[in-house]
């Protein structure tokens, strides 16, 4: 996972980084990912050359349900509050205040960092928007971003 946040160095074997990411993919499934885990996994996936998986990590939120006021679906909220097997990704859990979760800042900031990282790239990336698939019709526009380390 660290390949995503470390600058390129000969000390990191790219094949070991790829195999480690694949093992994480097998073991750390959606229901186990918390908070900023998805952005970290997305950045790592982009860096090891798997932009499809990077996109998945940032968009696999189909288990979140919000109404037009941003309130979580009550059943899902209760499952999370009672710590049942449902992920608490992206929003911190609090109870007794009308069922509206506050934003989870590390998750939100990580999401923004991952998207910027994938759009602008990192030192050594060879093309524009290297974290997005080349052949899936993605049109990525960005302004004022700098490459990551």
Automatic annotation (TrEMBL):
BP terms from Gene Ontology: carbohydrate metabolic process
InterPro entries: 6-hairpin_glycosidase_sf
Family matches, as SUPFAM superfamilies: Six-hairpin glycosidases
Protein name as catalogued: Uncharacterized protein
């Amino acid at each position: 996972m660290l390949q995503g946040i470390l600058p390129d160095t000969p000390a990191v074997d790219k094949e070991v980084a790829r195999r480690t990411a694949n093992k994480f993919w097998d073991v750390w499934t959606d229901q186990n990912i918390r908070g900023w885990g998805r952005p970290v996994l997305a950045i790592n996936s982009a860096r090891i050359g798997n932009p499809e998986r990077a996109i998945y990590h940032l968009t696999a939120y189909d288990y979140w349900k919000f109404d037009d006021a941003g309130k979580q679906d009550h059943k899902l909220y209760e499952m999370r509050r009672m710590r049942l097997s449902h992920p608490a990704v992206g929003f911190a859990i609090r109870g007794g205040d009308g069922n509206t979760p506050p934003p989870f800042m590390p998750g939100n900031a990580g999401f923004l960092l991952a998207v910027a990282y994938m759009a602008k790239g990192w030192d050594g990336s060879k093309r524009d928007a290297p974290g997005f698939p080349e052949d899936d019709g993605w049109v990525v526009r960005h302004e004022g971003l700098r490459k990551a380390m």
